[in-house]
Amino acid sequence: MYRWIEHTGEVELEIDSDSEESVFADALDAVSELLRDADDEDFAGAAGPRLERTISLTAEDRARLLAAWLGELAFLAETEGLVPDGLSDLRVGNGVLDATVHGYESDPPHLIKAVTYHRLWFAPQRGRWRAHAVLDV
Amino acid sequence: MPVELTRVDEVLWEIPAAARADMRVPARIFADSELLDAIAEDDSLEQLQNVATLPGIVDAALAMPDIHQGYGFPVGTVAATEPPHGVISPGGVGYDINCGVRLLALPLTLAELGGRKERLVHELSRAIPAAAPRGAGGGLSPGELDAVLVDGPRSLLDEGLATHADVEHTESRGRLDGADPARVSQRARQRGAPQLGTMGSGNHFVEVQSVARVFDAAAASAFGLAEGQLTVLIHSGSRGLGHQVCTDYVRRMDAALAGHGIELPDRQLSCAPISSDDARAYRAAMAAAANFAWANRQVIAHRVRQAVRAVAGGAAADATRQVYDVAHNVAKIERHGGREVCVHRKGATRAFAAGSEEVPAAYRDVGQPVFIPGSMGTSSFVLVGRPPAMERSFGTVCHGAGRALSRTAARKRIGGAELRRQLEGAGITVRCPSNRGLAEEAPFAYKAVEKVVAVVERAGLAARVAELRPAGVVKG
Predict the structure, then answer these.
(1) Looking at the complex, does the CB of residue B422 fall below 8 Å from at least one CB of chain A?
(2) Mutation for A interface: B68, B186, B243, most A CBs within 10 A
(3) Cys-Cys crosslink for B369: which of A46, B35, B76, B324, Cβ 3.0 to 4.6 Å?
(4) Residue B201 sits at the chain A interface (C-beta within 8 Å)
(5) pLDDT, tens digit, for every residue of B235-257?
């Protein structure tokens, strides 16, 4: 589960999930929503061919791994027009992530410039997994 | 936590260094009471205090009246650090390295353009894409990209995409020295290679305007501006290449913080001593990205001239003159107060006064032009740098109106289609493919640019030269 938090200049993402892996899946859903621009009828039906990309990432800790994951999705959207809508073979552990991202080619009108380290956070809390990131759009 | 503010003068406020144990210098904010109330509503002031903790920061962490909450540095900040132990912070420049504005002056008035205005805006929207078209190849070859990274717009002279006059009327003549393409990652190159000449989305735009009012006839004459004249204001930056350079070096400096013995209140402030290898590498990559941004705005300017040619003829296109191009996200080594410092301008514009050799010869007697875009549908202002800026703000002023509402809040208040109708009703031709993107940039999402400009004028940092009223806008 994810939600967007008010931020004057950028967009701020908060994730609350039942497992560490689900945080990454929820992050993909959030990026997908941002890219799809569901409010914009001009782009609602602009789905192109199906795409699939295998991703391997490493980082110093969970929070930085989440930033790298979001950054990779932003990179694929900008360079390949990949709007993600699914995920398989997700494996996360010890600062390593492997996954296959599924989606379709499109012309997303709202790209993500970057994933910041401001308020970047990812930790277990009261039996849940919670994370937080600010995206520069 | 409430912030302790002391009023220094009519438009300057201070948070003393003693307000927090980790602050090395005070934080100072240029604002009037009304703007200060708005500024205090988000996290800007806490973020400004965080900037005041940077190792080697001198004088104060300074906020311009358009400051708003960002990440790491708030947007609208100036921070100078003293080498060799003072730091450089990639987050203090921002992801859109050398985001900036360029003003072109056309040799005709809005009245003379007459019924061709719609067509001009349409031609601009066709000529200047928001993003690189996919499947159209990789854009610049590796050699061409290297040339752009090293030489900026000068690399485009031989192709006829730039003129010597354009280069002369660009901050730093469109080239930061020390750029090294080898310090730019393959991923950054991959993002940037197809994007030269693209505008981007968000708050980037190309706007057709007319000079509605002249405040300073001498400066306006020096800048070649007269009442009624058509202008085109371009707002864009270094695109994905700059975004990736910042991403790469925030990550690198974050990993090296402990090694440099630096502790920070916010990871996004990651930095390294200016004399370190990490900083040298970043400066070389940042300079390359800045040069790319100047070249990007140069290609957009070329495309503006092509649109003018299509609508108003070759003579009008050839006489479309670049007034100036100035960055508002960059870090530069400059001399202030008799010492060399690294001035970070994050959402802040260099505004050097008359006499500086950094100001083009044609403007040296009046000062450097500065362009302050308003929000969409409202006026923009041409300012000129004044001597107090050199004493009070490291030769810097604001960069825009400054956001007041989040994007979500703006969308809740108006739909893009309705805003489009309102703007068209006000005589502003709009070309924007995204209703959401349009709504997020609604005029009420920003502070009143007139009030922001009034503060920098009352502070003596700059003076108004001309007001530019929008006639048409192209947005990504």
Answers:
(1) no
(2) B243
(3) B324
(4) yes
(5) 999 999 999 999 999 999 999 99
